């Protein structure tokens, strides 16, 4: 497998304390990497620095050997990096289809698309996440699970190489969780998209992730195969009293 993303000595400071401190790891093409850790560990900050929504204060990030850090978010998006944020970002007054079309038009790795092409991609993406029959519905009528799937469709409509997911399974019931796990697995298996996925829902992480990276106070506590990492005494200690039971 070839290396897709390289994060080297990533540091992010908001004022004094570092939210990320010397974070170094690589992600192979086609891998599903889960990033876990207690609240405030720096997980969202890590995804945001990869997506260009926050700037590193030191270190570097590259995609297939080209530097990403320092680029504005839209250029990182055009390199094929799509992000689904912790809080859904869809336009509530628009329909699901309109949202997906916007995702295709402005999020495409191949640059600006024609409206026609964008519509085709939007339909495909909505079909992929099982929302075809809701395409005409205003997003304001969607529940949390449907909103998350729509966010995923918006990201997929841009045909990304790397998908950054921030707690997309929080607050779902068991059936919704199963459906979400299935979709993320299919995104990788069928579309070949590499996934970096921040998650607190450990049941889902253990089911889906191939490798886990644990952050604590902005530093890397452990990295490796899920079963090994979760046996690591330092990880167990960091998690005691945190939300690992979810
Ligand atoms: N824009 C910001 N300005 C100041 N501090 C910030 C900012 N964003 C994040 N932080 C701080 O950086 C640290 C890491 O935050 P981050 O949101 O990355 O954590 P997280 O691991 O995603 O937590 P959670 O599990 O609660 O989502 C926290 O101490 C947070 O307060
Ligand atoms: Mg977060």
Biggest sheet, in brief? Answer: 6 strands, mixed
The geometry reads as globular
Low-confidence stretches: 242-246
How many strands appear in the DSSP assignment?
10
What is the CATH homology-level superfamily of the largest domain? P-loop containing nucleotide triphosphate hydrolases
Cofactors, ions, other ligands: adenosine-5'-triphosphate, magnesium ion
End-to-end C-alpha gap: 33 Å
Structural class by sheet pairing and helices = alpha/beta
Portion in strands: 15-25%
- Give the number of helices: 9
3D structure, described in words:
A hairpin with a 2-residue loop joins strand 4 (58-63) and strand 5 (66-67). The protein folds into two domains: 1-80 and 161-171 and 188-246, 3-Layer(aba) Sandwich (Rossmann fold); 89-160, no CATH class. Residues 242-246 have low confidence and may be disordered. The two termini are 33 Å apart. It has 246 residues and is α/β, with parallel strands linked by helices. 37% of the residues lie in helices and 25% in strands. Residues 43-44, 86 line the site of magnesium ion.
